[in-house]
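Quick one: structure for this chain?
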Amino acid sequence: MEKLLSIKKKNLIYKIYVSLLMSIKLLINFLIWFIIYSHAFTSLSNTTYRTDSTGKVVYSLIPMFTEGFIGPIRTLYLLLHLCSFKMPNLKIT
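Got it. Here's what it folds into:
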């Protein structure tokens, strides 16, 4: 009986250890994704550097989260609902 409890404890510790490692891996992946995304967003557009009412250039990550995620959704909506796409007749000879 004691041996069975010992095995269950070891199994529980192993499960906790694995879940902790998976959480750390997920956090590292998210951090890498965020760094790449924010660098690309900043270098490809000037929406993170904006001029305020006094003429100072202000750095803000808020547009990255608003326009960075809403913009592609809005573009997809506009393309699908407001544009009419016609597929060309492709002739394979």
